[in-house]
Specification:
single chain; elongated; Ferric Hydroxamate Uptake Protein, Chain A, domain 1; mainly beta; 3% helix; 5-stranded mixed sheet; 370 residues
Length: 370
């Protein structure tokens, strides 16, 4: 992780200006009674907080799970200024973040590429194990990393591990924050997170997260900007059923990008010596990524406490890039003049879409007297 110096110029905790709707909330209700001595009892039913059950899908504590798991909380992300997933995963034990250059990254564990990724426990396609562009981290409550094959509930699994991104969901209070952050390499970042109730009873709530970021780099010519917004609505349909739905949108643009690393050695066998800011980029190089994710989730709890949950996820992504690759094609890279490198320009556009369905049932049962 490159060392970043950031300064929170302004942080406004919006929750200070709004009443909190929770079980302890005092509600004034006018009730007419013939007998004023009768004790008044007000029962307020509140929507309970609903969060992802994690990468295993079970309501188990980490110390009860037979896996090696690391959890990166939103508090850690803020404390370490880990604004994208690359920086966030460098906080996880046993995970290596391998950056090919400016815009391509692989996550590895135990010597293997991590190709199993999830959002709220639902698997996402990532057969190559390659991530392009910077993925925003502010939209997640936490990031869970399971090291080793997660075959307990996800089939064969992957020998490296599983990364599970847990979405931020509505809380039972009207609360939020807005922050303006300035940092090194001309970092300018505005972020907002607000959760609010949609009904007086608190049975329905929504949460909106938004980020706008612009920054330079220690590399010559590299500039990045990123826009992110997500919204989730969560509520109680009946006493036994819940519904949640939402979407996220991220548009990340990079100019002055690299494609591949710099040559390691000169033709005479000596190690190549470059300034840390050296980049072979051209003015016209760019790499833009667009990611859109939407989901809907329905859960029903039976009287015996068994729960059935159906989830649908839609994922769309686009990549557009103009790249410039330099390499020592003929073994004539000169240590005195730095001449002799060949170049290869390229343009690559790609689109990807996926529809993901998941149906689970969970509950307690007795087997062989246990």
């Amino acid at each position: 992780m490159k060392l970043k110096h950031t300064f929170a110029l302004s942080s406004l905790i919006l929750a200070m200006g709004f009443p909190a709707y929770a079980q302890e909330t005092q509600t004034e209700i006018s009730v007419e009674h013939d007998n004023e001595n009768v004790e008044k009892i007000l029962i307020v039913g509140m929507r309970k907080d609903r969060v992802s059950q994690g990468a295993t899908g079970l309501t188990m504590e980490l110390n009860e799970t037979p896996q090696s798991i690391s959890v990166i909380s939103s508090e850690q992300l803020e404390n370490f200024a880990a604004y994208d997933i690359d920086d966030a995963l460098q906080l996880a034990t046993g995970i290596t973040v391998e950056q090919g250059e400016t815009n391509r990254t692989r996550y590895t564990s135990r010597g293997f590429d991590i190709k199993s990724t999830q959002i709220d426990g639902i698997g996402l396609p990532n057969g190559w194990g390659l991530v392009t562009g910077a993925m925003e981290s502010y939209g997640y409550e936490e990031i869970e990393v399971i090291r080793g094959a997660n075959g307990q509930l996800t089939g064969v699994g992957n020998a490296a591990g599983t990364i599970n991104y847990v979405r931020k969901r509505p809380t039972n209070e009207n609360e939020g924050e807005v922050s303006l952050i300035l940092g090194s390499y001309d970092l300018k970042r505005l972020q907002a997170d607000y959760s609010f109730l949609l009904t007086d009873s608190g049975s329905w709530a929504a949460r909106v997260v938004a980020v706008a970021e612009d920054s330079g780099s220690y590399l010559d010519g590299l500039e990045d900007d990123r826009t992110y917004i997500s919204a989730v609505v969560d509520g109680q349909l009946t006493d036994n059923s819940t519904l949640a739905f939402g979407a996220s949108y991220q548009d990340a643009n990079s100019d002055g990008v690299m494609w591949g690393g710099l040559p390691l050695a000169y033709a005479d066998g000596t190690q190549a010596d470059f300034d840390v800011s050296t980049s072979p980029t051209q003015d016209w190089t760019m790499w833009d990524t667009l990611n859109i994710n939407a989901f809907i989730e329905y859960a029903y709890t039976f009287d015996n406490d068994w729960e059935v949950k159906a989830t649908y996820n839609r994922q769309d992504s686009e990549d557009q890039s103009k790249l410039f690759y330099v390499y020592d094609a003929f073994g004539i890279f000169d240590s005195e003049t730095n001449l002799g490198l060949a170049s290869q320009p390229g343009r690559y556009d790609s689109e990807f879409s996926a529809d993901l369905f998941d149906l689970t049932a969970k509950g307690e049962y007795s087997l062989f007297g246990q």
